[in-house]
Amino acid sequence: MKVTAFFLLVAATSLVECKRYRSDYEDYPDAGGWLKLHRVPANWHEARLRCHLEGGTLASPLTQKMSDVLKSFVEDHVLSNCGIFTGIHATFSRGQFASIEGVPLERIPHHWASGEPDNEQDSEQCILQLKDGSLADVSCSDTYPYICYRKYTNQITNACGTFDNEYQLDARTGNCYKFHLVPRTWSRAHLACTSEGGHLAVINSDAEAKVLEELFAKNPPGKLQSRAPFGKDIVFIGFHDWNEHGEWLTVQGQTLEQAGYVRWSGGQPDNGTHNEHRGEFCGGIFRSAQLDDLWCGMPYHFICEKAPDSLLWDEQ
Which residues of 207-245 are buried (b: 16+ CB within 10 A; e: fewer)? Predict the structure, then answer.
């Protein structure tokens, strides 16, 4: 009985030690979750959005342990002496700092750097954690590296290699697809798909076009909220003119012919104009899965595609 209990304890311990999220996130038990450093500096709003789209939050030093982990993480990985953005902000109400989780700054263990906070030019509503662990207020429009955080969960990755069960595997193509109900500009749609480990859907065959047509049909107009012209009957997918008007390439750099699908809807592409939007330089499809050119800056629904093994940990 004692031997059995020992092996059960070892097995349980192994399960704890083998927590996995995404291959681009590192496991930090003292933080109670996984962390990912984004080395490319971004403004605070872009950092928050990227972390959110990856399924996490912009990390904040909510506990002393978390503060120590972030400090160590920054010391090990961040070359700049400036530090990292945290999720602590006052963008909702000036001067009222709280984390993205809604924890007021007064309840977060912290100490300010010398001379901080100073709210320089009355424009510093975001918080930086410096390499020594101290905090400083900065402008949210400044750019700094940042860390995304995903709290431990008991969820298990699905057949698409993600916790996001809106991704569904289709046997006809061997890939996974997600219809996004929140409309975004083409650029933001591209960001959302890449943050989820995929890309805006690229049609490589008539069979794949049928997959997207059926997925679109599962989202009737009454379910959609886009206010863009024809916004409930068109979605963004992964092709663009790459700033060479008249030449269409996929997000993977192929011509439509090389990708394997060139079925434009009648009269398209027409490079239409609408109010201040001049020119349709981003790709989409109608409900028929026939191609259309769209205004990049208007928010449309969109479809993401990802391989089942993208962002999966190697368990070998």
Answer: ebbebbbebbeebeeeebebebeebbbbbbbbbbbeeee
